[in-house]
Automatic annotation (TrEMBL), chains A, B:
Organism placement in taxonomy: Bacteria, Bacillati, Bacillota, Bacilli, Lactobacillales
Pfam families per record: Pribosyltran (PF00156), PuR_N (PF09182)
UniProt name for this protein: Pur operon repressor
Keyword S-adenosyl-L-methionine belongs to the record: no
Family of the protein in this entry: Belongs to the purine/pyrimidine phosphoribosyltransferase family. PurR subfamily.
Subunit-structure text: Homodimer.
Gene3D superfamilies (alphabetical): 3.40.50.2020, Winged helix-like DNA-binding domain superfamily/Winged helix DNA-binding domain
Amino acid sequence: MKRSERLVDMTKYLMERPHTLISLPFFVKRYGAAKSSISEDLAILKHTLAANQDGILETVAGAAGGVRYVPYLGKNHVKRYLTDLSSRIEDSQRILAGGFVYLSDILDDPQDLRQIGKLIATRYAYSKIDVVMTVETKGISLAQAVARYLNVPFVIARKQSKVTEGATVSVNYISSSIDRVSKMELPTRALKNNSNVLIVDDFMKAGGTLTGMEELTKEFNSNVAGTCVLCEADFDKNKLIEGYLSLVKISRIDTTKRIILAEPGNFVAHTDFSRFQ
Amino acid sequence: MKRSERLVDMTKYLMERPHTLISLPFFVKRYGAAKSSISEDLAILKHTLAANQDGILETVAGAAGGVRYVPYLGKNHVKRYLTDLSSRIEDSQRILAGGFVYLSDILDDPQDLRQIGKLIATRYAYSKIDVVMTVETKGISLAQAVARYLNVPFVIARKQSKVTEGATVSVNYISSSIDRVSKMELPTRALKNNSNVLIVDDFMKAGGTLTGMEELTKEFNSNVAGTCVLCEADFDKNKLIEGYLSLVKISRIDTTKRIILAEPGNFVAHTDFSRFQ
């Protein structure tokens, strides 16, 4: 196979398997090419990804070595996307009763999910995440998008028990938007003990739902490696949680005057983009 | 930019935007290369995808022309995956009370979702799908995976109303597993009239839930372009629906003897793979 064909196939192969170590002998066999040619191919791939600040090709030396594609966006890509996203969220038609915001068009769009997934996966690319957790229903597409780029499973906590999941572990949490104690649960077989968990959700007001997922994580003797939400309602000042990241911060919703103000959240300030320097 | 670098970037660019027409002048400008060079690049890409029976690069001639990447798997890839998937489902630990089957490990795994999404997107690649529909909760990851490869939005029907979605349209349907009339609904702004809808779900017994989604589609003056489920329980003979496709057929579940039998469903027989001939 020619270099040009190898490069097309290799790019596709690696992109479909993020964070997976692929040995050089695998490519040598797949393409019937010399190891030195494969090394040159990979150098081209690495260089091209880096030039666009969109992806890192990591080389792992030694007998058990190989290459690994890490989805990773440069700072400018992230800032540009979050500025655009914030301005799209500043649309009065999104305002719903009770200070909620319609976001389904973003959470159901493959191109937005690709950007958001890659962006959050950049932040946690080197955090050794084992699993992404969210709670039904609207956080699911976000969790799946992040899980795709970290190439780990995602688990969905539920607010009601389903017969199709078997035994579950449940916790109570304060749901501040309805101001009462609620319950969420996870199938016992969905999460292994000692997992490193990334919690994501679509919308955060006081953060009660996020505390529920933290509780669930503890019940499985696991560790919260990070918490990241798509939108944070900054006007709800009584936060029940600390140390979370938000992509977008909604600073004001006026349901009477039909005004919604949004800006990029604290995500960029708390993300280390230095792998591209 | 050199051909080798262009090919890496072009592969990545097209793969991230399935079913999207990209004009040749766009690539000419992006790479500062001659149109003839870009055409040669694209021919290499097309040839390499076809050789692996994993993706089609379509060329659209004329002033408004360009190229389009269509995720499309060859028959052997599909058969191999479905055989493997069926044998993984034949695991007695999956049997839950009430003749249900634990599938969350498959529906939450990025690599399975990639294969399943691409596979269903192959079947409907030329059906002009506008939107993928499913019902909460477990069909969501499936819908998202298919939507990613068709590059269209997906919508989620709900069994309970949420305050964060605004106005909704609701329908009644017979939920045969609990043998009563249930309700599902969709936000009015989630689906445009005259849409071509692909309905997907994770598990089908009699098909009551699918009839609900068909009803919803009609309420939005839209058309059901196809219906596809991951698993069909073939032992439930009183089907409420016709013309659906299934990836896997579960022919027997014996909860006492802990036996579950599965095989590939009718998907392959009803899919035209001739685009690769």
